[in-house]
Amino acid sequence: MDAFVAGLAILADPKMLGVIVLGTLIGIIVGALPGISGSTTAALLLPFTIGMSPTMGVAFLGAIYCAANYGGSITAVLVNTPGDPSASATAFDGYPLAKQGRAGLALGISAISSAIGGIFSVIVLILLAPLLARVAYNIGPPEYFALAIFGLTMLGAVGGDAAVKNLMMGAVGLLLATIGTDLTTGVERFSFGVPELTDGLGFIPVLTGLFAMSELLTMIAERRQRIEMLALDAVKLPTAAEFRKCAKSIVLGCGLGTLIGILPALGATAAALITYGETKRWSKYPEEFGKGSIEGVAGPEAANNAAVGGAMVPTLALGIPGSTTAAIILAGLLVHGIRPGPHLFNEQPTLLYAVFASMLAANLIYLVLGLYAAKVFARISLIPPSFLWPSVFALCVLGAYAPGQSVIDVWVMLGFGALGFAMRRYGFSPAPLVMGLVLGQLVEENLKQSLILFDGSWLGFFGRPITLGLFGLIVVSFLVPAMMRGKPRVEARN
Amino acid sequence: MRIHPDQAAAVVIVAAAAVVFAQTLGFDAVPPALAQGMGAREFPQLLAALIAGFAVVMALQARGREAVTLDRIDGMVWLLLAAIPLYMGLLWLVGLPVSLAIALLALGLAWGERRMLALVVHAVALPTVIWLVFVKGLKVPLPTGVLGQMVGA
Q1: pTM here?
Q2: Where are the domains of chain B?
Q3: What is the enclosing helix (H) or strand (E) of A180?
Q4: What is the ipTM metric for this complex?
């Protein structure tokens, strides 16, 4: 409780509050810019947190993460192009509402639902993360290894047809994490005599390249597309009757969003899309969906913001990222020399509660900004791409160079930009690679320690109930979707 | 017979995994005192084998599927990729702020922007702000390039 009060006290620090407001503003603006997602922004701005204290840096990134999901709804409603992928479900009914001249109402509902979802999930995070950390506190290297593998394989399990690609990219991420000096033996691996590589690949150049630079290469191919925005009246608060109509979908969004966010691999986009389907299924007015239903806006918006707090639960309590953006925030903590996990709750509880407090504040700040300044943000989203994307390039180069002051890092960033472009073209997602890279050291260390414990026998993993349970879950999570996909084929054959 | 893009990708990935595996064979030997449990080369070897295995599965999965034709890569993307070494040469020669100004101008033109005054203002203003924030504010030195060093910047 003392730590929580101390965490809340950081909001009294004007500098900290300023950083959270700035993070929220940037989050909304870039969330509204089509093409630049929350994860791209977090990757792009990660280098700028190096000069901040770890608490301030994570609060800044956390605020961006919270606000970007809301920002995405502005262009989803007005342009029918979600600024952030997590707002794709919002466009289904938000844009038809805007076409009916009710864009202000759609954005008002979006702001309120987003804030409710976000605040609910942060409360869950505050309650659940310490409990989970306490449970995880006494688990050993084999369990940690199994947990990290569980997190990585979930990306495959939910990948559908891309399952093998996701698993492969997770393994590539783990392999990239082996570059540099092996900590247990001191042997240099894949550094090719380049001194800058002996400490391993920097997270920042890799993330900036994979997310921002590759997006730039993708966007230049679409440079001839023109965006047309529908008119926006003043943002309107829903009436009591409208709010009552949406209440069920907001509750559904809060619950499903938080739960989906907690699961490794599934992030805000999946939460919003699943909630949209469930909201329609449970609605009294399913016929309105797709034609401008306010429930169709409220549910997904509550869900995509609830997923943010949910994703931070395993990230902070176990050190296993719950989403791509959470993986980037985890990388930010690692860059500051902090490894999240159960020990952090004992060693630096104030830092964690400061993160919780900053996320709560960010949700309240974007609610106010969303209700009063959506029109301004909508206008900013129309920055000509011919100025926006060259600026992104400048930030990529600067972000890659500044933390290590190394030109090699700029090469790494540009190389991963080209790799990211090729990956997207062939249907490989960068998210599993990032997860693998961030978890690489943890996986290798715990595997090595486990094998020492088991005298080199891999069978030792099957003698421990938690590892056995986690491996069982991995098998089930692959078998069930495969069986579900196979069932219609069998029925069709019969 | 046209090859599926996944099969083409699998061939490249298997080849890359083989190169990685071969590289691990050249790692320094671990001193006997530290040779307990898994060594430095086994984990990367395991991963290289795993990646190659996944690539083979991916190729097999694509076997029955119709080979989709990927869109042609836009010429401007090729131009940008080709310009990467050029930019790095520029960075070495004139340093970060000036190379960024040139890149901003070139990228703006590549994006189809023809308002030259606005482009020039953007190309000058952004690197100036970056220079002021990093060099003057945060005291992070930015590379000035060979030419910059010659004129004592």
Answers
A1: 0.84
A2: 5-62, 75-150
A3: strand A180-181
A4: 0.92
